[in-house]
From TrEMBL:
Location(s), subcellular: Membrane
A single Gene Ontology CC term: membrane
Protein family: Belongs to the DAP10 family.
Membrane topology designation: Single-pass type I membrane protein
UniProt-recorded Gene Ontology molecular function terms: phosphatidylinositol 3-kinase binding; signaling receptor binding
Protein name as it appears in the record: Hematopoietic cell signal transducer
Record PANTHER family: HEMATOPOIETIC CELL SIGNAL TRANSDUCER (PTHR21409:SF1)
Chain segments annotated as transmembrane: 36-59
Length: 82
């Protein structure tokens, strides 16, 4: 039963693809101008770079605080032993 349902589903998908290929594509496709596409791509790259910079800054600040905290504890331990 499951094989028949899968075969029917695949046949329907193929039928829809054949119908879509035969239709006039300009009716259903939205045309994007090259300037708009360039703006979208540049905006995406800019946002990605911004996210990378913010994550790097936050990670470096956290690591710096951790190293400073370790130094304080090491000095306290050294002072307590003397």
């Amino acid at each position: 039963m499951d094989d028949n349902a899968l075969l029917m589903f695949l046949c329907l998908c193929f039928y829809k693809m054949v119908l879509a290929a035969g239709q006039n594509e300009s009716e259903y496709c939205y045309k994007i101008k090259p300037a708009t596409m360039t703006g979208i791509i540049l905006g995406d790259v800019g946002l990605t770079v911004l996210i990378v910079v913010v994550v790097y800054y936050c990670a470096s600040q956290r690591m710096k605080r951790r190293e400073e905290a370790d130094k304080v504890y090491m000095n306290v331990r050294a002072n307590c032993q003397a």
